[in-house]
Amino acid sequence: MQALQVTSLSPDLSGCELIVAPMPVRKTGEVLVRVRAASLNFPDLLMTRGDYQFKPQPPFIAGMELAGEVVEADEDSGFAIGERVMGGAKTGSMAGFASVPARNLKRAPDALSFSQAAALGAAYTTAYTALIEQGGMEAGQWVLVHGASGGVALAAVDLAKALGARVIAASGSPGKLERIAGLYAPDAVIHSQGRFREQVADITGGTLCDLVCDPVGGDIFDESSRCVTFGGKLLVVGFAGGRIAEIATNIPLIKGFSVVGIRAGEYARRFPDRGKRIADEVSRLADEGLIVPAIDRILPLSQWREGFEAMAGRELVGKLVFKPES
C-alpha cells in the first residue's frame, strides 16, 4: 500500500518519503480500515520535526486522523464490514490502509463526505472541549477566536456560531478574514496585529469577551489578556505563533478571569466518559447539518510535500485532506 513514512526527524521534511509499505496486520481489538481520506493536523507537521509532545521514534507512518471503510473487525467490535468510519490514532493514518483500535473509531456522519469526516474529529472535539466543556460557553456570549483560519480555530468559529454565541474571528491575514467571513459568517472579524483591544471593545459595546480561544500564543496572548471580561476565560489551545507567553498573576486576579489550558486528547483519556460524550455530541451536530468542516484543498497523498509546506507556510483556511491512491 502507499504510505507517507517519517524515516528520520528533520526541520525541512527531508526525513519524509512516500513508500510502498506492507499492509498492516490487524490485532485483536483493532479495526482494519481502507483509508479514503486522511486530514493533516498541525501536530502531524510537528512530529516530522520531533517538536510535538508525543515523540514517536522513526520510522513511522504519519497521520493522526482518517475516514474510510471497515475491511476487517472483531465480531463484537460494533462495526460492520463496509461501514463508513472516522477516527485514528497518533500515527498511521496517511496510508492506503490503517489498523486502528476500535475505541478510536466512530461511525462517520451520513451528512459528511469522507474528506469532511476525516477533518471533523480532532478539530471539533478540541473546539468543543475548549468552548463548551471547559469554557462553559452559553448562547449570546461573546467569543473571540484567534488564528481563525486554522483547523481547530475555524472549527471553534463554526461551533460557537452553531450554538448561538456571538463570534469575533481574528487572523493576521486580511485575505483570510474574507474567506472566514464567507464560510461561517462570524459577527465580526478583526485583523489581530498590534493592539486590538479597542476593536474588541467597540464590537462588544465595551463588555469585552466572555471567552477568548487562543491557539497562537505570544503577542496575541498578551493582548488577549486585555480582551477578557470580568469572570471570563482565556483558553490556551496552543502556541502556533512560536513564543510561549507568560502572564503576571495580578492581571487575572484584578480582572477576575481564568486562564484555562486545553488538551482535548488528554482530557478524553483522563475522563473517558466525558470524552465519549463530547465526540457523540460533535457527531450529532454534524449529522444534523449544524456544523460542517471547511476543506481548504484535497490532494493525492503523492503530493504530501505540497500539503505539509502549505501548512508550514500558513496558507490554509480550514483543513487539508490527503487521498491515498490505489
UniProtKB/TrEMBL annotation:
Q: What terms describe the molecular function in GO for this protein?
A: oxidoreductase activity
| Domain (Enoyl reductase (ER)): residue spans on this chain | 11-322
Q: Which Gene3D superfamilies match?
A: Medium-chain alcohol dehydrogenases, catalytic domain (3.90.180.10), NAD(P)-binding Rossmann-like Domain (3.40.50.720)
Starting at the broadest rank, the lineage of the source organism is: Bacteria, Pseudomonadati, Pseudomonadota, Alphaproteobacteria, Sphingomonadales
Lineage top rank: taxon? Bacteria
Name the chain's protein: Zinc-binding dehydrogenase
| Organism in which the protein naturally occurs | Pontixanthobacter gangjinensis
